[in-house]
Amino acid sequence: MPTTSNKMIGDFGGKPASAAMYAAIESYTLSLGSVTKHLTAQVSFSVNRKFLWVWAYERTGDGTLFLNVRLDRPVEEPRVHRVDQVSANRWNHHVVVKTMETVQSDWLKDLIRAGYEFAAR
């Protein structure tokens, strides 16, 4: 029995709900300033360094995105799925997004903005 791949993807073309949520995240992120977008197996955004990664998996249902926001400190936020310290003064904040309401929320925008401000220093 063949197994289907479950690779990380940054192209949400076959997932209309995910694509709509991604478009809103991308629009907000690019509005923060001089941000560069990179597309590989995932989409990432950088200023002086990368601060935001967005992806889904091939077998993830439409309407789910995964985000990683890098900050210089851990942020206590119950809607953040997990926080990992990856090096000195580097913390990854993992967020699972399943609704447009979350995409448009102040707490998520504040988290992305904090990542942008950290990367812009």
Radius of gyration: 14 Å
Strand content: 25-35%
**Secondary structure: helix percent:** 25-40%
Q: CATH topology, what is it called?
A: Yope Regulator, Chain: A
Q: How confident is the prediction overall: mean pLDDT? A: 96
Regions with little confidence, pLDDT below 50 for 5+ residues = none
- Count of discrete structural domains: 1
The tally of beta strands, per DSSP, is: 7
User: How does the helix and strand content classify structurally?
Assistant: alpha+beta
CATH architecture group name: 2-Layer Sandwich
Shape: globular
Protein name: DUF5655 domain-containing protein
Domain DUF5655: 15-118
Organism: Actinomyces oris
Pfam families: DUF5655
Overview of this protein structure:
The chain has 121 residues and is of the alpha+beta class. The chain has a single domain (8-120), classed as 2-Layer Sandwich (Yope Regulator, Chain: A). Helix content is 28%, strand content 32%. The chain has helices at residues 16-30, 100-103, 106-120; strands spanning 8-9, 36-39, 43-46, 50-57, 65-71, 82-87, 90-97. Strands 1, 2, 3, 4, 5, 6 and 7 form a 7-stranded antiparallel sheet that branches. The N and C termini lie far apart (51 Å).
Note the topology.
Layout (H helix, E strand, L loop, with lengths): L7 E2 L6 H15 L5 E4 L3 E4 L3 E8 L7 E7 L10 E6 L2 E8 L2 H4 L2 H15 L1
Antiparallel strand pairs: 1-4, 2-3, 3-4, 4-5, 5-7, 6-7
Structure summarized in a few sentences:
The chain has 121 residues and is an alpha+beta fold.
